[in-house]
Amino acid sequence: MGGIAGTRVSGAKAHLPIAPLEHRPGAEVFPALAPLARPAVRLYPRPGSPTVHDSSIGGPLLWPAQEPWPYCRIEHEGLHPLVPVAQLYARDIPLLRPPGRADLLQVLWCPSEHAPDSSIPIELSWRTAADVGDVPAAPPEPFDADEDYYVPEPCVLAPEQVTEYPDSLELPEELKQQITDPAPWRAAGIVVDDADPKEPYDHALSHAPGWKVGGWAPWGLTDPCHGSVWPAVPR
After folding, report:
1. Fewer CB within 10 Å: N-end or C-end of the chain?
2. Which one has a higher pLDDT value, 90 or 168?
């Protein structure tokens, strides 16, 4: 998922169980990593019954009853209401950078892929929770979803702040060579497989899996070597 005002929110299927990252030394072993460190908050969504007053994935939004519910702006056969994806209170996610008095970020998207690149339109809304009075009993039902996981099930969160480093594909060449040298890892007491010496970096220092705010971008079917560009985020 994209970001707004310096905030990046990214995720996977809301119901996937994701274990906490095992702490492993980063800049202590490779000092050149220090300036590349970025804070992130892992959300750890778990199926539950969040309310409009909770941070959640796929839960109900603190949406003003007098404010029209957003619909997809891209042409469909009929109206397609956006579905709630995430509601994040600044009190729970210190990395959020709300503008002005805002203390709540709400993320919605259209659960249908759109041509030509199968993108998912996303809408973000900042608001001040104390200014919201009545909320609608329930949002409009999704018109259609291309995949079930485009309509996240309601999940409560257990935020945890972590430190991330870039995907190994984004590292300077010298650092790439350093993290594939088993010697520094073993000197720090880390077991390294000679067949995959950068596994400790990829699995414990690079971007965290699952839903998160901030940190570094993950790379999947595309990567920086193939000319893909992640949108610049003000820092």
Report:
1. C
2. 90
